[in-house]
Amino acid sequence: MSGANATRNTSAAVGDLARVLRDLAWTVHRLVPEVAGLDPLPTTELAVLMQVLTTPGSTVTDMARRLGMRHSNVSAAVRDLVARGLVTREPSAADRRVSLLMPTDKAYSEQDSIDSVWSGTVRAAMVRLDPAQVQAIEGAADALAALDHVLRDDRNPRRRN
Fold it and tell me: At what angle do helices 43-54 and 71-83 cross, to 10 degrees?
């Protein structure tokens, strides 16, 4: 195989992987709230909520940068999350004009419920796979987590070297 063909095949494989990961994330995102008996959150709100849970005390600007979203979209999602009782805005001790986003007890409770159902949903589906497929998926977990970390770092200019 020539170098150009190998590059083209690698690019196609990466594109296929990206599509599979996107489709899988979307499928799980749609199934989990339904299975958990929760009101489904729009994708933007879920992304912001998960980021608030991961990095409590961030600002809307921080969230927009980390998520690669527009400031106005993050602000709208935060307003809805505050209305749902999942996020609070707390004034910064360093600058009272700045609001820090904090998850509520309800957010933590729903996160536990979603995480439990999410893992159960995935685990139940994996039982129906071929053992070699299960092993491949489990073996890829660390590499996929590292890819996620790199992609998140790429979205945050302050974290890049």
Answer: 80
